[in-house]
Write a structure and sequence with these properties.
mainly beta, 4% helix, globular, disordered N terminus
Length: 288
């Protein structure tokens, strides 16, 4: 299989949901420690993707991602918050990449998602479908290799149901330096030899989860879902065991942070967290 074909699929699969890198396998742990709102968040993640080559030079990638989200509210609130401690997000990614020419590929991705507390048997609110379409261009053999991804993604579970842009441009402008411009990630990398990579990134991230057991916030407000969004700035280091295998560690701070309970109409009814926090992420990945 052409390497850039698979990269294209996985980049698109990476840019919605929680993923941020195109990996064959990844295990990761994220911690946002308790802040002034007395809220702590931790996420355990597992990602895997399997490429399948077709006879017509097109490719299919089947993948999955699981996120276990632990949410701790350590301050007193005026309602029972026992159902707000543990959430699960399970994605099945199905991508198709069509070869247009040597550099360009058209890509489509469908992602059925379960996002729920899983306290009871599955219900309609647990299920949603994300769709993504776009193009991918790779120029790996140039003096300054570069990669471009453009597309739109639609998430049926979020509060604002509109297509959102995917923009990703990566360029190695110096033997030791490269940069990434885009949404939801922008950053710069310093390649200190084959073994060591240092990174600085600005990242947008978040989740939306159905509450199977609705939370009575007040006499007139009943929460049926929880959402969280954050803008992060981080510094990171990756130790490259080989060209495709690495261990990494990031530390940073949230510039913007929002955790809210929503009613059936997706309206905000209670703010759980709107304070900035420190941010730590570590993991192991097998990439491309």
């Amino acid at each position: 299989m052409k390497l850039y074909c698979l990269c294209g699929c996985l980049f698109f699969m990476a840019f919605f949901g929680f993923s941020q890198t195109p990996d064959i396998f990844r295990v990761e742990y994220t911690l946002i420690p308790e802040n002034s709102a007395e809220v702590q968040l931790s996420i355990a993640k597992l990602v895997t993707n399997i490429p399948i080559r077709l006879k017509d030079s097109s490719n299919i990638v089947i993948g999955g991602e699981y996120n276990r989200i632990a949410y701790e509210i350590n301050r007193n609130v005026d309602f029972d918050n026992t159902g707000l401690n543990l959430f699960h997000v399970v994605d099945l990614n199905m991508a198709y990449v069509l070869k247009y020419n040597k550099e360009w590929r058209f890509i489509g991705v469908v992602t059925p998602r379960l996002a729920s507390t899983f306290d009871n048997p599955l219900e309609n609110g647990d299920f949603s479908v994300n769709t993504t379409i776009g193009v991918f261009r790779d120029r790996p053999k140039r003096d300054k290799p570069n990669r471009l991804v453009l597309g739109l993604t639609y998430n049926s579970s979020v509060a604002f149901r509109i297509p959102l842009p995917i923009v990703y441009f990566e360029k190695r402008f110096h033997p030791n330096w490269s940069y990434v411009l885009g949404v939801p990630k922008t950053g710069v990398k310093y390649h200190a030899g084959k073994r060591h990579t240092f990174k600085g990134e600005f990242v947008l991230d978040g989740y939306f989860v159905n509450l199977q057991n609705n939370v009575l916030v007040s006499e007139t407000s009943l929460a049926s879902s929880i959402s969280s969004s954050a803008a992060l700035i981080t510094l990171g280091y990756q130790f490259n065991i080989s060209k495709l295998v690495g261990l990494y560690l990031y530390a940073g701070h949230t510039l913007l942070n929002s955790g809210v309970l929503r009613d059936e109409e997706r309206n905000d009814i209670f703010t759980l967290n709107d304070e900035s926090s420190f941010y730590f992420r570590t993991g192991f990945r097998i990439g491309l």
